[in-house]
Structure formats: C-alpha cells, structure tokens
Amino acid sequence: MRILEETLSGISQQPLAILDTKIPLSTYIPINLSSHNPDLEGMAITDPNQCQAYIDKILKQHSAAVAYGGYLEKRNLYADKSGFTKKGESPRNVHLGMDFWASAGTKVVSPLYGRVHSFQNNTTSGDYGPTIILTHEVNEITFHTLYGHLSLESLKGLYVGKEFRPGEVLATLGTPDINVNYAPHLHFQIIQDLENYQGDYPGVCTRRDLDFYSVNCPDPNLLLKI
C-alpha cells in the first residue's frame, strides 16, 4: 500500500461522517450509477430530474437517507457535457471521487482537521459549482480534500487558511441551478498533488489517464470507512 493510502487508513478505525452528523451512518446506502447498471438503460441519467428520481427510488427501497459511491465508476452521467469529450479523444467518464446524494441544503462536515487551501464557483457546464479545497497534514504527509456541488452560501466568510475541526460544518449542498445541473450531492475527493489548481481539480478522467489519477486521488473510503 502506498504511503498516502496507509496514512488515510490509519487516521481512524471508525467510520467518519461527511454529512450532517445527525444523519445516522446506518441510513447510508450504496448506489450504482455506472454505465454497466442495467437499471439505467434507456434513462436520461444526465437529466437531474431523472437522476434524482432514480436516487429517490433507491433511497425509498432501503429506507435510507443518503446514497453514496462512485469511486472509479465509469459513467454516462457526463455524456451531454461538451467539455468532457474533446474531438478525437477518449471521453472523460471515470469518476475520481466519492459522491453522497442527499437533499439540497444538507450540511457537509469536515471529516478531519484542515485549513482552507482555496475555493471558487466553477460555473462551466458539468463542473462543480461552488467548491472548497482543504489542506491536511497527518504524520508529516500533506494531502487535500475537495468538496464540490455546494451552495453559494458555503463560500461566504471563507478565507485561505481558515481552520475547520473534525465534525465542524464546512458547507451545505447546492441545488441543480447552482451545482451546474446535477441532482443535489457532495463530490468528495482526496488529492495528493493539486498541480497548481486553485479551487478546482479534475473529478473525472479518461481511461488513458487512470493510472496517474488513481494514484494521485486514492479511494476516499480509505479515510471515511463508510
């Protein structure tokens, strides 16, 4: 196991909340939004309303409050986003973070101590909308966590270096008109090298680039253990 992965795994032996701590982790349910899911065949999954309807169906079936998953999942969710597929190149459709699908306005909490690295509203179609990146140092290992698809209010009062304690409210989830046309959810991603990005970082890659990104962006569940 790589050093960062070992560090993430050792931070806690217990599951860590990423959303409102009043929502029991027992009410989180995995969801499959991959292109291999037969339940999504014929569904316009890029439509936030249809995507939300499918999420609601899964939540209702399991009496759950949050649907989660998606790390390294190949998806059709970005098929209508022009910036995700350049002419003559492979599509960017492999998801590099972990998504938590929940109601707009749901609180997002920091799973561990961190300081604000950068933040901005990424408004390009298919992007994150309001985004916050924190920097963490654990056992002399530095890494970053990205929180995307937030509300505009989440960016108010932020400044570089602002501290957040474990379990402290960091943000709230945005609506589709703010999070750039997705059903409400949190995109949570761990990043080792930000490559000079500020308030943004690729959350989806091509199969060709997966070897690099899967190392630079390890599985968030190594930390969260949900």
Describe this entry's structure for a reader.
The protein is α+β, with helices and mostly antiparallel strands and 226 residues long. 15% of the residues lie in helices and 26% in strands. The longest helix is centred in the N-terminal third of the chain and has 14 residues, at 48-61. The chain is globular and about 50 Å long. The two termini are 20 Å apart. The mean pLDDT is 94.
First CA to last CA: what distance?
20 Å
Order of helices and strands: HEHEEEEEEEEEEEHH
Shape: globular
Ranges where pLDDT stays below 50 over 5 or more residues in a row are none
Overall pLDDT metric: 94
How many helices? The count is 4
Find the structural class using helix and strand composition.
Answer: alpha+beta
Strand order of the largest sheet: 1-2-4-11-8-7-6-9
**Portion in helices:** 10-25%
Strand content: 25-35%
Sketch the major β-sheet: 8 strands, mixed
Number of DSSP strands?
Answer: 12
Cα Rg:
16 Å
Q: Main traits of this protein?
A:
226 residues, alpha+beta, 8-stranded mixed beta sheet, globular
In short:
This protein is of the alpha+beta class. It contains four helices and twelve strands, in the order H-E-H-E-E-E-E-E-E-E-E-E-E-E-H-H.
Draw up the topology in text.
Blueprint: H1 3-11, E1 28-30, H2 48-61, E2 66-69, E3 94-95, E4 98-101, E5 107-109, E6 114-122, E7 129-138, E8 141-148, E9 163-164, E10 169-172, E11 185-191, E12 204-205, H3 210-216, H4 221-224
Parallel strand pairs: 1-2
Antiparallel strand pairs: 2-4, 3-12, 4-11, 5-10, 6-7, 6-9, 7-8, 8-11
